[in-house]
Amino acid sequence: MSFFRKERFLNNRFIRTLGGLVIALFFVAQAGNWINVSLIEHADGLLYDARLKLTAPGGVDSRIVIVDIDEKSLREREQGGEGRWPWPRDRLALLNDRLLNQYQVALVGYDVIFSEKDLSSGIQSLENIANRNLKGNSVLASELSKLKPELDFDGRFAASMKDQPVVLGFTFLPAIETSQKGSLPIPALTTKELPLSAVDPLVRSGYTGNLARLQSSSADGGHINPLVDSDGVIRRVPMLIRHENGYYASLALASARTLLGGLPLGLILNPGTSVDQFGSVAALDVGGAALPINTELVSYIPYRGGYQSFDYISASDVINQKIDPKALEEKIVLIGTTAPGLLDLRTTPFSNTYPGVEIHANLIAGILDGTIKQSPVWVQTVNFLAIAVLGIFFALLLPWLKPLSGLVASTIGAAVILGSNFWLYQGGIVFPLAGLMAVATLLYLFNVAYGYFVESRGKRLMNGLFGQYVPPELVDEMAKNPANFSMEGESRELTILFSDVRGFTTISESLDAKTLSEFINAFLTPFTKVIYHNQGTIDKYMGDCIMAFWGAPIKDEDHARHGLISAFEMLTAMDLLNEEFIKKGWPPIKVGIGLNSGRVSVGNMGSEIRLAYTVMGDAVNLASRLEGITKEYGAAIIIGDETYKKLPDLIAREVDKVRVKGKDIAVKIFEPLGFEGTVSEEKMAALQLFEKALQAYRNQEWNDAQTQFEFLLENYRSTGEVLYELYLERIGLLRDNPPGDDWDGSFTFTKK
């Protein structure tokens, strides 16, 4: 097997297909969760963000108002604020009273946790004094009992929530922490109502809840735990988190449920399933509103836009009654903070400093509007199959396509992926995009890069092997299909050209070494360009001689025509060169060109030390002989019979039938005059007369032949003076020494 045939085995579609399948398998493994590729997860997050931003409704949702514990509210009382956080809970009780009774809001949700007792009133200190230092002092005990309700700020805060639509927030601790503080609300669902076999939720043991007296006084409670993706961005929230035997709602879900009547959550099952089947729950029924969930009970946050997608009012302005009563009537109020010092600024798709309270607002709006998007349990399976099918399809297809066709196919594939993904997204389903896009893109890039680097390597190899023989554009063509070209010897039909400068020895003796080198380069360069221009291969330079051939290494069905056209163009180039040579004071040149076609051996030939890409065979030898006898006939170009037969539109003069040195069989040789439509009338007339004269010569009709050649010499001298004189000379010799009746009209050369 030749080098390039080995190269074909290595550098072919098999390698591309195998590489493509490896790439596809990598992404299939990622989609199947057999390996974890954080880059794909990160890319999926960014692509989700792009879809979210593209489709976000924007504007302000006036149904929900954020009562902001802002920098203004944290100023001292003298400056119109309430002081630093945490505030005494009598002030929070006043805030509740303002919102619920004065402004008639629909709901109050606290993105705040009240896990510690409020001791700011001093009631605890007074009780300690009464029970220790002044124990038994009835007057103090009486006065303290009168003051206690007023100084029990937690009690006042709890009373302000009693029988009111107030929802408190609490937090679950990370999975590794088990400490429990405060009290939890009643779970939204129990594991009996939603069996563990149906879902795979987040499970938490530790939590920080509110004081029991506060939680029990509120309408409900909800956790404030978002899911933070690996890139630090909050895109999802667990709507329910399991703790022991219950599922606890998020603050947004608890608020929406309270707002919609406080009815128990219902389960909406997928058709044909039962509640204990994994993935059977399609959505939660929240007071008549369907909230889509997946098996992890997680939902995407339907961000409306950036910061302040909801109205903000300073908490101190509410307490100090600086708000228009109509501004809050029947509004959903969430109490949270934008103050940097209170550390509730989060990273979201829209901002790196997004108030956490606004995340809950977006979720509440999404539940009410039915715009919560979900990633159902079947998404992972379909994504796995889609990546497998797409990856295998492109791995098998792209190696057969050219780069442009591959780009078109990949672009169409990417467009289908994007269109389908966006259609699903608009329908409320979040489908992974990065894996599919990556496998389509990387498979295309792999094929293009592989083709580019191997082609570049092939070009370098081809240039090293054939660059000294063929023009660069043919090297590029060969590099595209290196398996089609070999330097091993093979038999092939070619056309071979030899050219030589007549009288070069005399010319070289008249020039110094430097000038001679310039002189040789001056005519070899344009002659070489002519040969290259006509798809020829330079075999070698031998002083002033050029050896070239057509039909290898690149096959050329028109090798005879290209060879002869090169010969004609070399003569034209010679005329132009002579004009330049005369200007330089150099001697003009005349070249003789021999051209022959036939089956020869072509390939790397030589020794183990040095090889050369060349041709050998009888057809090569004849081409060399023809170049050597051009001067005998006064012709610039002589071609062999096989070349002549391949050019039916060539006008040529059969100048002789010869036996060259080393050959017993006579061959016809021709002087090409031009292709049909390019030969002058004079030359055509002379050609007809010459053919008659030649026939008389071969018939040994010496007198008739002599008369005709003399007529040609007298009337058409410019069309072949040397040729006509040659035959007149031969006639004189043969008349005196007849060749015999078996003579075939041929002439035998005894020198090369």
In short:
By secondary structure, the protein is an alpha/beta fold. Helix content is 44%, strand content 19%. It folds into four domains: 3-36 and 376-461, no CATH class; 61-369, no CATH class; 487-679, Alpha-Beta Plaits; 681-752.
Beta-strand residue fraction: 15-25%
Please report the total strand number as a whole number: 28
Q: For the terminal residues, how far apart are their CA atoms?
A: 40 Å
Mean pLDDT: 88
Question: Treating each run of at least 4 consecutive H or I residues as one helix, how many helices?
Answer: 23
Oligomer: single chain
Largest sheet descriptor: 9 strands, mixed
Radius of gyration: 50 Å
Number of structural domains: 4
Summing up helix and strand content along with how strands pair, one would put the structural category as alpha/beta
Low-confidence stretches: 1-7
Shape: rod-shaped
**Percent helix:** 40-55%
Can you give keywords for this protein?
about 750 residues, alpha/beta, Alpha-Beta Plaits, 4 domains, 9-stranded mixed sheet, 8-stranded mixed sheet, 23 helices, 28 strands, rod-shaped, disordered N terminus
Summarize the structure in words.
- InterPro entries: A/G_cyclase, Adenylyl/Guanylyl_Cyclase_3/4, CHASE2, Nucleotide_cyclase.
- The protein is of the alpha/beta class and 752 residues long.
- It folds into four domains: 3-36 and 376-461, no CATH class; 61-369, no CATH class; 487-679, Nucleotide cyclase, GGDEF domain (Alpha-Beta Plaits), CATH 3.30.70; 681-752.
- 44% of the residues lie in helices and 19% in strands.
- The chain is built from 23 helices and 28 strands.
- Strands 20, 21, 22, 23, 24, 25, 26, 27 and 28 form a nine-stranded mixed β-sheet that branches. Strands 1, 2, 3, 4, 6, 7, 16 and 17 form an eight-stranded mixed β-sheet that branches.
- α12 (378-397) packs parallel to α14 (434-466), α21 (681-698) packs antiparallel against α22 (702-715) and α22 runs antiparallel to α23 (721-736).
- The chain is rod-shaped.
- It starts with a helix and ends with a strand.
